[in-house]
Amino acid sequence: MTRDLAKVWADRMTKSERDQTFPDSEPRDAATLMLIDRAGAKPKVLLGRRHQGHKFMPGKYVFPGGRIEPLDRAMTAASELHADTQAKLLERVSAPSAGLARGFALAAVREMAEETGLLLGVKRDDAPTAPADDWGVFTKAHVHPDLAQIQFIARAITPPRRPRRFDTRFFTADATAIAHKIEGVVGADSELVELVWVPIEDATHLDMPTITGVVLEELAARVAAGMAHGLPVPFYFMKDQQFFRELL
Question: Within 10 Å of residue 125's Cβ, how many Cβ atoms?
């Protein structure tokens, strides 16, 4: 990485993103998934445009994602996380465990299904065992999440004194991981009003949160480096009014 992306994050932040006048709070664990299609000459990523009526990031282009749910870690899977991925997910956390690591990745898979209707994994004759209603669509479609297909791309914590703070893990998976599609999930009255496949280098020109654009650059660098599980994972955070990018 030739550019100081911590500085890029700081320089690109909008006025509203810089506003630190809110009471401070602990960031909530969250996960998001960057689906990538590398079948063509230029790799493309899947982005969703949020409904304009949302109070949080209205109209912004985002990657599907959301908060970790307690039972996510209990969802059955066709395979487990790569050892390197698990190890990096458990760095700089207060209570590391294999369950915590798989919970991060499974939350990203669940959120992808909830917001786009795309179920990632492998179809089998037998149905997976769902630990909660949130996972019922996987049982109905006989789709088992396939954690070995998922890579950990970046981690970022929302700066202090923002109205909503998240400790977000950014994952990626190839479009070939799509095992089933539920129609009608995306639309005018949904959380995401449209989905678009955009070349990575063009996606940063869309209206999106600053950190999303920065992580897109990390994804492009990872693609160029060969997409190995053992590649370092950048961790973005702010401390004492300074922005940092450290490698996990």
Answer: 5
Q: SS3 of 29, please? A: strand
For 89, the token pair is 């997910």
Which residues are bridge partners to 157 per DSSP? 167
Total domains in the chain come to 1
Instruction: Over range 227-239, report the average pLDDT.
Output: 94
- Answer with the residue of higher pLDDT: 204 or 44: 44
**How many Cα neighbours within 13 Å face the side chain of 200?**
21
Angle (deg, nearest 10), helices 5-12 and 210-225: 150
**Span 134-192, pLDDT tens digits:** 999 999 999 999 999 999 999 999 998 888 899 999 999 999 999 999 999 988 888 88
Tokens for 210? Answer: 């600053």
Place of tokens 């049982």: 139
For residue 85, which of 176, 179, 28, 170 has the smallest C-alpha distance?
170
> Average pLDDT of 42-66?
82
DSSP structure class, residue 159: P
Domain of residue 41 covers 5-247
**What is the length of the chain?**
248
Write down the pTM of the prediction.
Answer: 0.93
d(CA 243, CA 231): 22
- Range in 3-12, 25-34, 131-140, 157-166 with the lowest mean pLDDT: 3-12
Helices (H), the chain: 5-12, 15-18, 83-89, 98-116, 136-141, 200-203, 210-225
Output the domain CATH number for residue 194: 3.90.79.10
Q: Higher model confidence: residue 196 or residue 55? A: 196
